Amino acid sequence: MRPIRPILVALALAGLVVAGCGNQGQPDTTAAAPTDPTAAPTSASTAPSTGSDATATSATTRTSRTSVLADRISNPQVAADRLLDAWLDGDRAAAHRLASQAAVDRLFAETPPARSPQALPCRLADPGTFVCSYPLAQRAELTMIVTGGASAGYTITGIEFGD
């Protein structure tokens, strides 16, 4: 019979190594849970706590992570389509949430078409880089360069108008 303790220790260390490798090169976007059990939770609920402090802390952490993830777009086509909609609506504020300053400036330097163009499926250009195109008129096309990943989210980093 094998001793169970060395196996459990090895599994615990392996879990820590895997957890530590997941965010290399990425900024930490999760909110830290309060360590002070008397700290007020930041969730929208103002009802008095009837459960344990651990339950309140867990709800606070979950609420904070949810709001961070709600801003993340995990599909390059969705990111490009939303930027197109912002351009067609003249909504620079929405465009800035989706794209770089240079991309927004380039896009809004052009007049949007009278009708919404049909999207062509985004194509993978390089790892982490997609090209999403929208035919504007015969022999005229809007191309968006979308970078990122499903876990980190996608953003538009380039705009091209061409034939």
Strands side by side in the biggest sheet: 1-2-3-4
Poorly predicted parts:
11-69
Radius of gyration: 23 Å
Oligomer: single chain
Q: Provide the residue-averaged pLDDT.
A: 73
Q: Helix count, per DSSP?
A: 5
Number of strands: 4
Q: Tell me the β content.
A: 15-25%
Encode the helix/strand succession as letters: HHHHHEEEE
Largest beta-sheet characterization: 4 strands, antiparallel
What does this structure look like?
The protein is built from five helices and four strands, in the order H-H-H-H-H-E-E-E-E. The chain is an alpha+beta fold and 163 residues long. A hairpin with a 2-residue loop joins strand 2 and strand 3 (140-149). The longest helix is centred in the first third of the chain and has 18 residues, at 4-21. The termini are far apart.
Give a brief outline of the structure.
With 163 residues, this protein is α+β, with helices and mostly antiparallel strands. It is 40% helix and 20% strand. Helix 3 (76-89) runs antiparallel to helix 4 (92-98).
How is the secondary structure organized here?
Elements: H1 4-21, H2 53-70, H3 76-89, H4 92-98, H5 101-108, E1 123-126, E2 129-137, E3 140-149, E4 153-162
Antiparallel strand pairs: 1-2, 2-3, 3-4
Helix pairs in contact: 3-4
Comma- or semicolon-separated keywords:
single chain; 163 residues; alpha+beta; four-stranded antiparallel sheet
